Amino acid sequence: MMTYRYLTVLCMWALFGAFVCQYESDAPDTSLQTTGETDDRVSRRDLAWSMRQSKELHIVFPTFQTGQPNPYREIAEKLAGAFPKDWKVTTQSEDAISAEDLRNSPLVLLGREFQQSDILQLLEQLPFEEAADHFRFHEETYDQDTDSYRLFLYPNPNSRTPVFLIGGNSSDAILAQLSTQEGEDWSNIFWRSWGYEIYDGTDVLVRGNFRDRDWTFEPDNHFDFTRREVVNFNSEHFRFHDLSGLGKTYIENLAAACEAQLEELRAFTGSSRKVPVIDYYIYPTIEEKGLRLMNTEEGHLVQEHREIHVVINETFLGQHTHQDIKLILHDLLGPASKPFLREGLAAFFNEHWQEKGADHWAARLYHSDNLPDLEELLNDERFERESPLVMTATAGSLISFLVKDWGREKVLEQYGQWDELATEQVRELAKKWHQYLAAMPAPAAASTASGLPYYRGFNFAHEGYQIYNGYGSALAQQSLEKLSQLGTNAIAIVPYGFQRDPQRAAFLGVHHGAGGENDESVIYSHAQAQALGMYTLLKPQLWVSGSWPGDVNMQSEAEWTAFFDYYHRWIRHYALMAEMRKFDAFCLGVEFSKATLSHPEAWRELIRKIRGLYSGPLTYAANWGEEFEQLAFWNELDFIGLNCYYPLSKDDQPSKNELRRNFSDILEKAEKVSRKFNKPLVFTEVGFRSVAHTWKNPHAEADGRPYDPECQRVCYEVLFEGIEDKKWVNGLFIWKWPSYLDYQERNPVSFTPSGKPAELVVQQWFENKLGR
């Protein structure tokens, strides 16, 4: 995978966003109040709220003798420097902190061998027990000099303020684990979603979370990597570390393939430079890899440590992500002079990239009018921030063309020192490259709506934003299995992009951070669902800061042009991924009610491009009301998508018959649109919270309404009864079902029917009636 400079910022926003979503709403945690329960115990969310409100933090380290260097002072200053300027962050030795601040202020204790009595008393009440030559955590002793730990966002026993603890068996061990932050934003130490971590040097041994509110050990959220068996195998240039149980024969064959690849690269480059040994780590799942490394990518390279980390299973063949090729080329040729040369030459040698190779996918991009301009590949900043799928395919194809057009020697010469091209040279080169792509077969005609299944589905929501409970996790697998047991035959998978200002066009990045809706987690849950016999709809959505996509409304035509350019680049990534990974349907937009009604031709052009890239059925998910009823381009799509949150009644206590009559009126509006365009309709979203009067405004937040699962149940009955015999309706995707099953216990007034009376209603209709 490419390393992007802009992703440092993006990933930090993602980490902070995940932290905010879980722990930093606009109020302390009151989730249980709506069920009539009370709980005065402090939660992680309460602690985060406290810290956010105070904007204060004291970083405290041990006092050293006069003249003796203090190894923690510089680290403390780096930590302090990671916070916004309006925060009051102090760094001080233990003899300078007041007893009042120790009791009542957010606190970081950094180091070992504290002497101050109040700090020692505080440490005795925290989960890590320190001794002179070891520390203990949950009945386990860690006695190596290289062992250290971190405790995140833990309640101060003397107040409702957070404590962070960074300690270990030696100063060297503590500094070693903190060295993993070098080159990153130091503030992500505080915004991590883990409760604790234990390290051996820079290697993570243990990660986990405490049970919220009672702060006891939670076995299901404790991940001990010291108990994993690792099978090692060495070849001439590779040390393989198999954590997947692939077996000796598989690893021997992989080693032979890697050594053969190295010799092919040596022959092509003509280089006799030495290739030092490469450590090659193999993981069974993206979850296992992510929990260990905080990186869930199918494969990634740690160049400075000469390490390759890949996932190999039925879904991912990480050995085909050409991480070893990039490292070997660096050994043989030195650093690439341009990012497109680094990625492109590696992809050129990887005939298995995304199964069919870079040339195949670049030709598809070209024939569908989705190929990036040559200028974009030559612009380092634009290349590194764009979709890795699009840019790797494009760069690999360009190298393939250049080897044929320029010859091997010139390509290798330019790899080390790129000669900038004049504008006319770029145009001429692009023309010849396009001729090369034009000679390749055009993609087959796209599918139409004929043969669409009847969707008995859910929007499968990535909840929790932690590696072990979001898309791609074992808990997500369990959640999908429960859906299958309910009779579900389809899911919509919903990765989010982020737009800060609804009235200002800006680049839309693809999320890559571990724990988010990144590509690999989306792909893995898609594969899990298909293995269970479900259809998958890929439904990317924009999260608009403080707003929603319906408010996207540029202030000039120039801004609209920029918006549609940025949006095309973003949605193009997901359309290509949907084609590569064989998603069953694709939704190219969600609820852009102003953008669609004001600029239908821009959407028609977007549909034309995406249809050439993705060969399955296409839809758009329109917001209920004016957008859905007035949309002009339904004829360009394979089925009509309606996000149906029409109110069913304005009354507090309507009869069920009134709800039925009102829903019948809604269905008449929907049928009118379906008949006008002669297209089947699918409810791409429809759902109800388990709150009182949920029929009044189904899309709205709970806003303090009490928990009322019966209101939700009645609305589901009305929904299913209403659509049962409607031949123009081709199914629905209920909003929503969480990626881990105990989500509803923590969020009782959420949309999900999981574990509520409405779940049985869904099961009865999905199994026995709907679409049968």
Biggest β-sheet strands, sense, barrel: 8 strands, mixed
Which ranges are low-confidence, i.e. pLDDT below 50, for 5 or more consecutive residues? 1-28, 30-34
How are the strands ordered across the major sheet?
A: 2-1-3-8-7-9-10-11
SS summary, helix count: 26
Q: Roughly how much helix do the residues carry, as a percent range?
A: 25-40%
Structural classification: alpha/beta
Output mean pLDDT: 91
Proportion of β residues? 15-25%
Shape: globular
Distance between termini?
44 Å
Q: What is the number of beta strands?
A: 26
Radius of gyration: 28 Å
Spell out the key features of this protein:
772 residues; alpha/beta; eight-stranded mixed sheet; eight-stranded parallel β-barrel; globular
Task: Show the helix and strand layout.
Layout: H1 5-23, H2 44-54, E1 56-61, H3 73-81, E2 88-93, H4 99-104, E3 107-110, H5 117-124, E4 129-130, E5 135-137, E6 140-142, E7 147-155, E8 162-168, H6 171-178, E9 196-200, E10 203-210, E11 217-224, E12 231-234, E13 238-242, H7 248-269, E14 278-283, H8 286-293, E15 299-302, E16 307-311, H9 323-333, H10 339-348, H11 358-367, H12 374-378, H13 380-385, H14 388-405, H15 408-416, H16 423-438, E17 455-461, H17 474-485, E18 490-493, E19 496-499, H18 519-531, E20 535-538, E21 541-544, H19 557-580, E22 585-590, H20 593-598, H21 600-613, E23 618-623, H22 626-630, E24 640-644, H23 656-677, E25 681-686, H24 709-723, E26 729-738, H25 743-746, H26 757-768
Parallel strand pairs: 1-2, 1-3, 3-8, 13-14, 14-16, 17-18, 17-26, 18-20, 19-21, 20-22, 22-23, 23-24, 24-25, 25-26
Antiparallel strand pairs: 4-5, 5-6, 7-8, 7-9, 9-10, 10-11, 12-13, 15-16
Helix pairs in contact: 1-2, 7-9, 9-10, 10-14, 11-14, 14-15, 19-21, 23-24, 24-26
